[in-house]
């Protein structure tokens, strides 16, 4: 019978299916939905990526990441203070390097007084209890925008690893708690572990970007660190092909063998299957990076009034938890933390 007729029929209450199981029962009220919820998002799940630059008391907006700004070191300290107040466990620091300080080799990456190292020291001095994660890769420091050393159009693997080890030790010496190599060179996790240990930094953790894909979702980030225009070619000879899943497990397996303490998958939402598989396969603390393009899509649509920004923000972060992530790097971190704290 047509639905309208059933609805109009006085005897409609008699139309009962004989169902022993009705999943809607558990959804009938907010208290019940909360009681049966399998995953929760808490402030402890959040890592806040911030961008630091030279200068004083300045915040520069990033056009393709509305609401996100590059911060001078003093402003980064204020941001860290705010994060600590919200109980966000850790910050991930990325630099915007003055173009005059960039060169072919990314030498500035090894300068113990570069903007990342100065931010590390300044934040550690004032807010010692917040975790500081640093990116190991050369792209913010090279004139060509690649993560490694470029020779005749090729990114050299082993010589790059040697530089990355020195970059990691430089960051550890400035106070980094966690080294996060995002370069995707072969063998870098083992080499960095050995280099850190040899320099007396046995306690510095490694969060490896185990499965990092060659993704268009990084576009706004490259605006943020100022490499969008300078990058020559693409990163497909070192970042992974988006069509591959089994290979992500091989990448993660090697990083685990080489001593990674934590694994990360990146981008996030389009790669939830990888998050799930990596967590299932290795059981290590596993993180997802909700990258700049994901942020821009949500925030851009929200600011246009096309979607409900806050709800999408929370729903997307919950999806990472459901996929098995132990935490998420997200530019929404402070906003989410404020919301979660407000209840
Ligand atoms: C580079 C690096 C990238 C991101 C983090 N580290 C971009 C890239 O590989 O080009 C992207 C983060 C984001 O998009 O939010 N080493």
UniProtKB/TrEMBL annotation:
SUPFAM superfamilies: Aldolase
Catalysed transformations (reactions): 2 5-aminolevulinate = porphobilinogen + 2 H2O + H(+)
Pathway where it operates: Porphyrin-containing compound metabolism; protoporphyrin-IX biosynthesis; coproporphyrinogen-III from 5-aminolevulinate: step 1/4
Keywords: Heme biosynthesis, Lyase, Magnesium, Metal-binding, Porphyrin biosynthesis
Active site: 212 (schiff-base intermediate with substrate), 266 (schiff-base intermediate with substrate)
InterPro entries: ALAD (IPR001731), ALAD_AS (IPR030656), Aldolase_TIM (IPR013785)
Enzyme Commission number(s) from the entry: 4.2.1.24
GO molecular function: porphobilinogen synthase activity; zinc ion binding
Top-level EC class: lyase
Record's keyword annotation contains ATP-binding: no
Pfam family membership, one: ALAD
GO CC field: cytosol
Gene Ontology annotations of biological process type: protoporphyrinogen IX biosynthetic process
Record SMART domains: ALAD (SM01004)
Binding site for Mg(2+): 251
Subunit note: Homooctamer.
Family: Belongs to the ALAD family.
Name under which the protein is recorded: Delta-aminolevulinic acid dehydratase
């Amino acid at each position: 019978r047509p639905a309208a007729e059933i609805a109009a029929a006085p005897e409609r209450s008699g139309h009962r299916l004989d169902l022993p199981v009705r999943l809607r029962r558990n959804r009938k009220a907010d208290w019940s939905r909360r009681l049966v919820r399998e995953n929760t998002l808490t402030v402890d799940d959040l890592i806040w990526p911030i961008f630091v630059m030279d200068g004083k008391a300045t915040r520069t907006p990033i056009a393709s990441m509305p609401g996100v700004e590059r911060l001078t070191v003093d402003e980064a300290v204020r941001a860290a203070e705010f994060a600590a107040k919200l109980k966000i466990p850790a910050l991930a620091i990325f630099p915007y390097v003055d173009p005059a300080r960039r060169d072919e080799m990314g030498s500035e990456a090894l300068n113990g007084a570069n903007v990342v190292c100065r931010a590390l020291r300044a934040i550690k001095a004032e807010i010692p209890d917040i975790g500081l994660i640093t990116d190991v890769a050369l792209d913010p420091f090279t004139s060509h925008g690649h993560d490694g050393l470029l020779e005749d159009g090729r990114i050299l693997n082993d010589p790059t690893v040697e530089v990355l080890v020195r970059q990691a030790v430089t960051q550890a010496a400035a106070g980094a708690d966690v080294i996060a190599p995002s370069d995707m060179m072969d063998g870098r996790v083992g080499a960095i572990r050995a280099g850190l240990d040899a320099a007396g930094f046995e306690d510095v953790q490694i969060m490896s970007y185990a499965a990092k894909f060659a993704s268009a979702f990084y576009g706004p980030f490259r605006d943020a660190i100022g490499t969008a225009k300078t990058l020559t070619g693409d990163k497909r000879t070192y970042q992974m092909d988006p069509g591959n899943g089994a290979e992500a497990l091989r990448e993660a397996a090697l990083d685990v063998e080489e001593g990674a303490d934590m694994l990360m998958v990146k981008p996030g939402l389009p790669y939830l299957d990888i998050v799930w598989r990596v967590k299932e396969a290795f059981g290590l603390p596993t993180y997802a990076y909700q990258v700049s393009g994901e942020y821009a899509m949500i925030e851009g649509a929200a600011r246009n009034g096309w979607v409900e920004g806050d709800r999408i923000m929370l729903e997307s972060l919950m999806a990472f938890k459901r996929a098995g992530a132990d935490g998420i790097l997200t530019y929404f971190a402070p906003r989410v933390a404020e919301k979660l704290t407000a209840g």
